[in-house]
Amino acid sequence: MLNLNLNRILKARGIDTPYKFLVRNGFVPFTAHKYKNGKVEHMRLDHIEKLCILLNCTPNDIFEWVPDDLLDDRPDHPLQKIRKREKKLEINKLLSKMSMAQLEEVEKLLHGAIEEKI
Predict the structure, then answer these.
(1) What's the rounded Cα separation, in Å, for the pair 55 and 9?
(2) How far is CA 59 from the centre of its chain?
């Protein structure tokens, strides 16, 4: 089953109040609540696009696949690419433990990675 999971990317982007973020960016409160909690049975395509633009991501980053049963869980299935396996992004915790010299080195690496994509 495909599930909406915004929590992972919102946390990675440092957004501590997802509901407020969604409402502030044009989602009605009812929809913001559903999206924040992942309680979604269907989504409008323009909402998917808007979320991806706001969060600078792709649909693969906001959806995750959980197989309904073992027969669906083939390692070669293309949906495996969007299966999240308890890999947490806790960059803030990692950064808080680094020295200033290490932080400066990370900043240089990030700038280099961003410039390579431009």
Answers:
(1) 7
(2) 9
| Band of pLDDT at residue 71, cut at 50, 70 and 90 | low
Helical packing angle, 45-55 and 29-37, nearest 10°: 70
DSSP 8-class letter at 118: -
Half-sphere exposure of 95 toward its Cβ, with a 13 Å CA cutoff?
12
Per-residue pLDDT, 55: 95
Copy the structure tokens of residue 45. 């395509």
H helical segments located in 2-118:
7-12, 18-24, 29-37, 45-55, 59-62, 91-96, 100-117
What burial letters (b/e) apply to 67-76, b meaning 16+ CB within 10 Å? eeeeeeeeee
CB 65 within 8 A of CB 80: yes
What's the confidence (pLDDT) of residue 88?
58
3 touches 63 (CB < 8 A): yes
Cα diameter, the chain: 50
